[in-house]
Design a protein that fits this description.
Helices cover 80% and strands 0% of the residues. It is mainly alpha-helical. Helix 1 crosses helix 8 (243-274), helix 4 packs antiparallel against helix 12 (383-412) and helix 8 (243-274) runs antiparallel to helix 11. It is globular. The two termini are 21 Å apart.
């Protein structure tokens, strides 16, 4: 059993890990497209190509982790190496040389983003692989998973809440005026915006390293299973044979594509649709409420549904999906009828983010249970292999959603003019065509609804690991292990 100190440090690692992930997933498109001027179409291609590259890199990394044997353990070396390199790349990605433009800027965005994905994989796979390796299933596994996902949600919420509050503050404090040779390209507030992102990312990167270091020093690896290694061929074969793992993988893609489409576009909604000279304050309030809701949903709503209402995890999943769909419908209706205050939009924001919080917990529980299912069905435990797929599909979802968002932005022609940064006293919604605004609303609401419904139908048809089945598998594995001993 893990001690309280180990659980707390493990959760702290999740906070740092998801801080860097959310910063990249939510703001990389905005940073390069709206601030630096890279075309939305180019960014869409970059983000999607990076995910295709991950299709080969991530599963291989899972095998590498499974084969690792050092005096410091299997997981901690990769956690440290991945964290250090990823923190450096993250900073470089949001500190693009301001003199770059054209093809040079596109190449810089492509190289740093692809390297960010590679280094993130180095630490994300061993992090989540610890769950089934340290637990025996059932309540123990659900407890650790809930803790980790709750802390990950805290990390995501911190970025959602703080980014567009702290970035302008740092920009005004540290930005000053652009050098003479760059003044025409980055006049006034736009230079401050670049500066704000650079120093904000530096702070996030440092916290990421500190949190992971604390975790690695506090946790002693004590895996209760002897993880077998596999060739790449065996790995893909094992994944194909584990139909439940593949079903959960598809579900993860669906849920995250829907959420990330919204997270990529909601800043443009506040800036170019809802508008107003204080759009940034409205956006920050929306994210603050949404981020807080996500945390509370993981810590309170999921336990309430699970323990007090006695709903099984599959029913909770459908409740969560329904909440999200209702939230999207409400968001579209409010925007279409001309609601101009941010306060009513907090209601659909709460529904969507509460759903995201519950899903963060429940999907990882589902995925961890497929490890036991694969052990019983195929005679091997492939923790790193299966959890490498979680890393890949979450990043794949972010790439797909960013590609969809970038194409929408390109078609709708939503982009700030030179010199108009987040600190400008400008109403960016003025002059934006009504058709462009409506198109933005449709992409950020109706598209996620369609994706979620299709995913729920696939899940209903294929997933069989209900609570009774999980308990049955756990007992069969205990009996088999006892017999083998």
């Amino acid at each position: 059993m893990l001690t309280g100190k180990e659980k707390a440090s493990y959760g702290l690692g999740a906070v740092g890990k998801d801080m860097v992930y959310m910063l990249s997933a939510s703001y990389i498109l905005y940073y390069f497209q709206d601030i630096l001027g890279v075309s939305a179409a180019a960014m869409g291609v970059i983000l999607l190509v990076a995910r295709v590259f991950d299709a080969f890199n991530d599963p291989i990394m899972g095998v590498v982790v499974a084969k690792t044997k050092t005096r410091w353990g299997k997981f901690r070396p990769w956690l440290l190496i991945g964290t250090l390199t990823n923190a450096i790349i993250l900073y470089l990605m949001f500190a693009a040389p301001p003199a770059l433009d054209g093809a040079g800027l596109v190449a810089y965005a492509a190289v740093t983003y692809i390297m960010w994905g590679v280094t993130y994989t180095m630490m994300d796979i061993p992090y989540w692989s610890m769950i089934p390796a340290f637990t025996n299933g059932g309540k123990e596994r659900e407890g650790l998973t809930t803790l980790a996902r709750s802390c990950a949600g805290v990390g995501s919420a911190i970025i959602s809440i703080a980014t567009m509050i702290v970035v302008p503050l740092l920009g005004r404090t540290l930005g000053g005026a652009a050098p003479h040779e760059l003044a025409s390209r980055y006049p006034g507030s736009q230079w401050q915006e670049l500066t704000g992102f650079k120093f904000f990312t530096l702070g996030v990167s440092v916290l990421f390293i500190v949190f992971t270091l604390i975790m690695c020093l506090s946790i002693k690896e004590k895996s209760s299973v002897d993880m077998k290694t596999a060739s790449v061929k065996d790995m893909f074969k094992a994944l194909v044979q584990n139909d439940q793992a593949m079903t959960v993988v598809v579900t993860i893609v669906v849920i995250n594509v829907a959420l990330y489409i919204t997270s990529n576009l909601v800043i443009y909604f506040f800036k170019y649709d809802l508008g107003g000279t204080t759009w940034n304050d409205s956006y920050a309030l929306f994210n603050m409420v949404g981020g807080g809701t996500q945390i509370l949903a993981m810590m309170l709503l999921y336990p309430f549904l699970r323990n007090l209402l006695k709903l099984n995890n599959i029913k909770i999943f459908y409740v969560s999906i329904s909440m999200s769909v209702i939230g999207y419908v409400a968001l579209l209706v409010m925007a279409t009828v001309g609601v101009s205050s941010v306060v009513p939009f907090l209601i659909p924001g709460v529904l969507v983010m509460a759903s995201a919080g519950v899903n963060n917990v429940i999907i990882t529980v589902f995925l961890a249970n497929t490890v036991d299912y694969g052990d019983l069905k195929n005679g091997r435990r492939d923790e790193s292999v299966i959890f490498s797929m979680q890393t890949f599909v979450v990043k794949l979802a972010s790439g797909i959603s960013a590609f969809i968002a970038s194409i929408a932005l390109s078609v709708l022609n939503l982009k700030q003019n030179a010199g108009e940064g987040i600190t400008s006293n400008i109403d960016f919604s003025l002059g934006v065509a009504a058709g462009s605004k409506m198109g933005l609303r449709i992409v950020m609401t109706l598209v996620p609804i369609i994706v979620l419904i299709c995913g729920a139908l696939v899940f209903k048809a294929k997933f069989i690991l209900n609570d009774a089945k999980v308990a049955e598998i756990s007992e069969e594995l205990k009996a088999r292990h006892k017999k083998e001993a």
